[in-house]
Amino acid sequence: MQKINIVCVGKIKEEFYRSAVAEYLKRLSRFARVEIKELAECRTIEEEAQPILKSCKGYIIALCVEGKKYSSEKLAEDIKKLCDRGEEITFVIGSSCGLSDKVKEQADLKLSFSDMTFPHQLMRVILTEQIYRAFMINSGSEYHK
After folding, report:
1. Which of 53, 80, 128, 140 has its CA 20 to 30 A from that of 5?
2. Using CA atoms, how far apart are residues 100 and 66, in angstroms rounded to an integer?
3. CA distance 137 to 145
4. What average pLDDT score do residues 80-103 get?
5. Pairwise CA distance, residues 109 & 19, whole Å
6. d(CA 85, CA 66)
7. 15-28 and 120-138 are packed helices; what angle lies between their axes, rounded to 10 degrees?
8. Which pLDDT band holds residue 145 (cuts at 50, 70, 90)?
9. Of 91, 35, 46, nearest to 64 (Cα)?
10. What is the SS3 assignment for 47-67?
11. Using CA atoms, how far apart are residues 7 and 69, in angstroms rounded to an integer?
12. What is the pTM of this model?
């Protein structure tokens, strides 16, 4: 079974975000083992870099506004290629201050979901939904229309 890691800084405080993430993790469980690693927020993004990098395994995808913009189909295609190679995937969501350049430099892909800025807690919901959507696209499901 495919292994996917989500490394993120900070905890989700709002129950409605936690519930949404839990729902997508439940749906994803038939396709992949997804592990979320929550790291403590530090005073600076530079202090957060080392714990983030220590938690990353396999192919690293850093979520950052200056990254490449993908369609859901393109993300599904890339995830399928990584799965076919048996590669573990780690997505990284920084704190509300973003990600250190050290983390971005180590990433295999810098991915942007939009030019807009989203709360990092909401980004976890968006990310888990898009990972689920990618697996549904790859399975030929009607979920993605």
Report:
1. 140
2. 13
3. 9
4. 96
5. 28
6. 27
7. 20
8. low
9. 91
10. HHHHHHHHHCCCEEEEEEEEE
11. 20
12. 0.96
Read off the tokens for 122. Answer: 């909401």
How high does pLDDT run on average in the chain?
96
Structure tokens at 22: 């839990």
The answer to whether the CB of 112 falls within 8 A of the CB of 69 is yes
pLDDT at 14: 96
Asked if residues 124 and 92 have their Cβ atoms less than 8 Å apart, the reply is no
Region of 69 please: left (phi>0), alpha (psi -120 to 50) or beta: beta
Quick check: 90 and 74 in contact, CB under 8 A? no
40 C-beta neighbours (distance < 10 Å), count: 11
**What is the four-CA torsion angle of 102, 103, 104, 109, rounded to 10 degrees?**
140
Which one-letter DSSP state was computed for residue 108?
S
Distance CA 133, CA 143 (A): 7
**Long-range contact pairs involving 104-107 (C-beta distance under 8 Å, separation at least 24):** 104/62, 104/64, 106/53, 106/56, 106/60, 107/60, 107/61, 107/62
Residue 84, φ and ψ in degrees, nearest 5:
-60, -30
